[in-house]
């Protein structure tokens, strides 16, 4: 009876996703950048500050006297229909870079490197339009 139970257990395990470690770092980074695009389009500064931008980046803004939401509101003023296309993603430990092409209505497209850092089991944007460290 025990030998018949093993194949059934294996089938159930495969169906349930046993051993599945979840999304890869690259997938999580792409999800972060997609969430950034959606939140920027919706002008949802709370989501950007609370879930997408790295705490160190937010601290830097606040040290110069700007609450995160205020800085983003000023920075994204007039932003309409933002789009981000993610190219090459490179992960090095707890840091990563992503090559992105961004555009918005009435603005010229831009190709930049976005720096990201691991926060918990996810990724947050550490800088926008950086030179890239990886």
Summed up:
The chain has helices at 2-16, 25-41, 45-52, 55-63, 68-75; strands spanning 83-92, 95-103, 110-119, 122-130. The protein is an alpha+beta fold and 134 residues long.
Number of spatially distinct domains = 1
What is the average per-residue confidence, as pLDDT, rounded to a whole number? 84
- Characterize the overall form: globular
CATH topology: Nuclear Transport Factor 2, Chain: A
Amount of helix:
40-55%
Helix and strand content put the structural class at: alpha+beta
Architecture per CATH nomenclature, i.e. the level-2 architecture: Roll
How do the strands line up in the largest sheet? Answer: 1-2-3-4
Give the CA-CA distance, first to last residue: 54 Å
Biggest β-sheet, characterized? Answer: 4 strands, antiparallel
Radius of gyration: 19 Å
Low-confidence stretches: 12-17
Q: Number of DSSP helices?
A: 5
Order of helices and strands: HHHHHEEEE
Measured by DSSP, the beta-strand proportion falls in 25-35%
Q: Give the number of DSSP strands.
A: 4
For this structure, what is the CATH class? Alpha Beta
List the helices and strands and how they pair.
Elements: H1 2-16, H2 25-41, H3 45-52, H4 55-63, H5 68-75, E1 83-92, E2 95-103, E3 110-119, E4 122-130
Antiparallel strand pairs: 1-2, 2-3, 3-4
What would your notes on this structure say?
This protein is α+β, with helices and mostly antiparallel strands and 134 residues long. It has one domain: Nuclear Transport Factor 2, Chain: A (Roll). It is 43% helix and 28% strand. It has helices at residues 2-16, 25-41, 45-52, 55-63, 68-75; strands at residues 83-92, 95-103, 110-119, 122-130. A 4-stranded antiparallel sheet has the order 1-2-3-4. A hairpin with a 6-residue loop joins strand 2 and strand 3 (110-119). Helix 2 (25-41) runs antiparallel to helix 3 (45-52) and helix 3 (45-52) crosses helix 5.
């Amino acid at each position: 009876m025990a030998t018949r139970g093993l194949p059934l257990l294996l089938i159930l395990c495969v169906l349930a996703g046993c051993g599945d470690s979840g999304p890869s770092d690259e997938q999580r980074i792409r999800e972060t950048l997609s969430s950034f695009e959606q939140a920027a389009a919706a002008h949802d500064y709370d989501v950007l500050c609370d879930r997408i931008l790295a705490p160190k980046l937010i601290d830097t803004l606040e040290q110069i006297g700007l609450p995160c939401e205020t800085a983003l509101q000023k920075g994204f003023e007039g932003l309409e229909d933002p789009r981000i296309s993610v190219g090459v993603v490179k992960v090095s430990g707890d840091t990563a870079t992503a090559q992105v092409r961004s555009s918005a209505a009435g603005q010229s497209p831009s190709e930049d490197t976005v720096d990201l850092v691991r926060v918990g089991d996810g990724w947050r944007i550490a800088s926008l339009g950086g030179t890239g460290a990886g």
